[in-house]
Amino acid sequence: MLAEYLEELIMKQHITLEQWDELTHEQKDKLDEYGCRHDWKMSIGQMIEFLGDDLKFIRLGDPVHVELRNGHGWGRVELCDALWSACKRVLNG
To answer: What is the mean pLDDT of the chain?
Structure first.
């Protein structure tokens, strides 16, 4: 029980290789123009910089989690994963 509680408090800092592999070559090329192509461990800070004004998809929750706007309203997700979802939306747009 304590381990689960502590795991909830530890914030994920980077995307995973599996998340990076979700991108198409075209999307990776867009990130290459931004300067992140070879950095599959994209950090929270890099994603915030990349998103700029497109942070509108995210609103703050507790220190580790945020709410991410999806097609049905808002859902609670970890900050890193919410930023990654928003980055993918921008890359698709």
So the answer is: 78
Alpha helices (runs of H) in the chain, residue ranges in sequence order: 2-9, 17-20, 25-34, 44-51, 79-92
Q: pLDDT tens digits, residue range 4-37?
A: 665 666 778 889 999 999 999 898 888 888 777 5
Global pTM value:
0.71
Domain total for the chain? 1
Rounded Cα distance, 51 and 1, in Å: 36
Strands ordered across the beta sheet of 73-78: 58-60, 65-70, 73-78
Between CA 4 and CA 21 the distance in angstroms is 28
Domain with 27 in it: 2-92
Cα dist from 79 to 12, 33, 63, 85, whole Å: 8, 24, 9, 10
